[in-house]
Amino acid sequence: MKSGSRLERILTSGEFAVTGELGPPKNGNAEHVREKARLLKGSVDAVNITDCQTAIVRMSSISAGLLTLAEGVEPVIQMTCRDRNRIGMQSDILGAAALGLKNLLCLTGDHQKFGNHPGSKGVFDMDSIQLLGMVKTMRDEKKFQCGELIKSHEPKLFLGAAANPFAGPSEQFRAARLAKKVANGADFVQTQIIYNVERFAKFMQAVRDLGLHKKVHILAGVTPPKSVGMARYMKSSVPGMDVTDEVIKRMQGAKDKEDEGINICVDIIRQVREIEGVAGVHIMAIEWESAVPEIVSRAGLATRPVFADEPVALAAARPEAPIEVRSAVAAEKESDVVLAAAKAEAEKIVAAAQAEAAQFRASASSVSGAGAVDQARIEIDQAGEDAMNEKERQMALESVRLGLDALKKAYGLSDDQFDALTKFAGAEAILKREPVLAAPAAPAAPAAASVAPVAPAPVTDEGAAKKAAEAAALEDAKKGEAAKKAAESKAAEEAKQAEVAKKAAEAAAAEEAKKIEASKKAAEAKAAEATKKPAAPAEKKAPAAAAPVSAAVGAAALALEKAPLSERAAKVPEASYKQAYTGAIRQTVLGDAASGIKVGGESTLPFHLFEGAMPNKPMIAFDILDVKPDEWPDSLARHYQDVMDNPVAWAQKCVKEYGAEAICISMVSTDPNGLNRPSGEAAKAAAEVVKNIEVPVIVWGCGNGEKDTETLREITSLIGDKKVCLAPLSDSNYRAIGATAMAFQYPMVAASPIDVNLAKQLNILLENLGVSLESVLIDPSIGALGYGIEYTYSVMERIRLAALTQKDEKLQVPFICNLGREVWKAKECRLPSDEMIGDQETRGILMEAITASCMLMAGGELMIMRHPRAVSLTKSLISGLMD
């Protein structure tokens, strides 16, 4: 047994398993989880605990799983790759295993843009297949993903995966994808919700053809439709769902929609149970868990297997003694009894403290040897104050405090009860404020032994106390008057000092004004003297300051390092700086055979020529527009001022004067939110550019999926045998444009919004369509320098590492970076020249060149840029790094 879980035992024994699903709440209410677990208990063999499903923040899967386990229901913990990197995932896996959780379902996870935090950053350090492989290695080989050994207590988990039989392009393809998950460690599989049993049967036939039904336990996913609207929504809006018309008709004709939904679910369970290779069902009734027992009962699955020798362990220990629920009256009576006992103890403590204080006083009196008359006089003088000296008082107070604290702990008193006890005991009143009776006078000296000691009467002279109070008040008044006079004296002194400082400042200001006036007169005199002299010869005049002119378009070549790295690092082992890569980037050809260019093909990180081959250097395409731009800054527009009205002439100038290796024509005029130029008219202008230049051409749409589809199709019908690259393809138009590009064998650009998973998904969709990835370039969405470039860089870096080190075939395609348009719309490129931020044109050139250098370091193979000087700088950098 791999984990010994209940689910594993049922599946390996050949029993038909039933699993359910439990969605944790969007709060910390543990009782919510417990209630759902009680509804499912006895009806399912295990229950999936979702991990922030649909990217909405919820209670963690592991926490909810522990609560479920405590209710006697075995959980299947879900873990997605969206929210954790591999460090966090391995940590959570170890923690889950340590807490007694034995089943783990590995998922890639819904993209965060679909949830309640769309601005959050998805991690996607790996996908579900890689996660399966990592956990399998931890379990079977006792190794972390980095290769470090797990010395003991490796996580023994029963591993699951998800499969969608209806995602396309065919059942055979989906079965082959499932085979990858099985090869990476999947022990059981839960499928997407099934309504089309016929298609599911074909999928299972493909699974059996590959022999997967003997290697993995497949649980068919089912859910009861609760309403007609729910069924229609799943049919039209949920990707990978195939809801048949028959299901919708049954729901429409039913009087009790919920009951009919349960019947539909039961019918599907009965049908899939007859299909060879189906080992169980996974009932997904989130927020309708109460329907699960009824579904299981009607399907004839109510009697679940029981293993007496291995009961479900409880995650949290139960209290053995019964919990006694007392009424409020009984609790109050018991509290009163406890408090009364505590008060009695407090009185004893205070009495002991007083006795201890008396002992101190008696000891002090015997040592001092003062007579009875003197002692009486002292007691009268101290009437109304403490009878103990400060040391004695503090010791008694500390004794009382310690005693009361001990009482609080012993009787379990609340803070309120303890306060009441303190006030009742009256310790502070006795020791701090209460006037005390005078102690008995010390015995007289032996010579006067016949005189009996007389105890002084209690101090009750109210007149004396009143006089003492009046004297104290008078003393306080005198002190207050003295303090007031001192404050007034200090304020007067400060005012005097401020006046002196003010006069000094005025004098200094007057002196400075005199100096300025004298300098001004001297300058005027000098100027008048200069006007009297004859004018200097014309050739000796200083030339007028010319308008700032940017540097020349060309760029100097970088100094080359002649000694290879192997010589420079001869004393360092190669293993310290070289890495072997297992993948390679596909090579894509743009343009016709005679004048085409190749991008991609490397088997190493960018410019790491000491580690692998980089057969094709990165290329640069000049960006032109199909209409004259009115928002370009003069620092950029002046280089194309004479040709901006004519896209053909513009493209030719880029090729002939600036040495363009490729041209990208941006169809900005077709934007429905802008000029909304008709697709046919814009296509003719683009076709003229394609026909009149020899370098490869990229046609970049306006970004509106529907309009781009029309425009790009029009262009392909006008350019004949010319090969162009079509861009951008997104999830909204990849089918139409992808089919067109496939038909004419054009390369294409797959654009996704700065996300590894979405980039990979779009490539998968294109491949499912029949497109060869040899003709695809990835546009990861570019941010300019200072405008999100770190996000772009991070995503590109992760894509490239996955392609080279993890052999992710779906990401082994070149990058295209349309950075010119992003840079030149930044405000820094439009601000005029000034002393603080420098020349406007130089600033824009550097922003574009530095952005391009960042993209090159991240793996960019084809740059789309605008300023010829920035292009020259980037070419110089590429040549310096490649040669």
Attribute tags:
883 residues; alpha/beta; TIM Barrel; 8-stranded parallel β-barrel; 8-stranded parallel beta sheet; 18 strands
Largest sheet geometry: 8 strands, parallel, barrel
The share of residues in extended strands comes to 5-15%
CATH architecture of the domain at 582-817 and 857-866: Alpha-Beta Barrel
Rounded to an integer in angstroms, the radius of gyration calculated over CA atoms is 44 Å
Name of the CATH superfamily of the domain at 582-817 and 857-866: Dihydropteroate synthase-like
Spans where pLDDT lies below 50 across 5 or more residues: 312-329, 366-388, 427-462, 530-551
And the CATH topology of the domain at 582-817 and 857-866? Answer: TIM Barrel
Q: Considering DSSP H and I runs of 4 or more, what fraction of the residues is helical?
A: 40-55%
Total helical segments? 28
Average pLDDT across residues? 82
Shape: flat
How would you classify the helix and strand content by structural class?
alpha/beta
Strand order across the largest sheet: 1-2-3-4-5-6-7-8
CATH class of the domain at 582-817 and 857-866: Alpha Beta
Number of strands: 18
Instruction: For the record, give the distance between the C-alpha atoms at the N and C termini, rounded to a whole number.
Output: 58 Å
Domain CO dehydrogenase/acetyl-CoA synthase delta subunit TIM barrel: 589-828
Keywords: Coiled coil, FAD, Flavoprotein, Oxidoreductase
Protein name: Methylenetetrahydrofolate reductase
Family: Belongs to the methylenetetrahydrofolate reductase family.
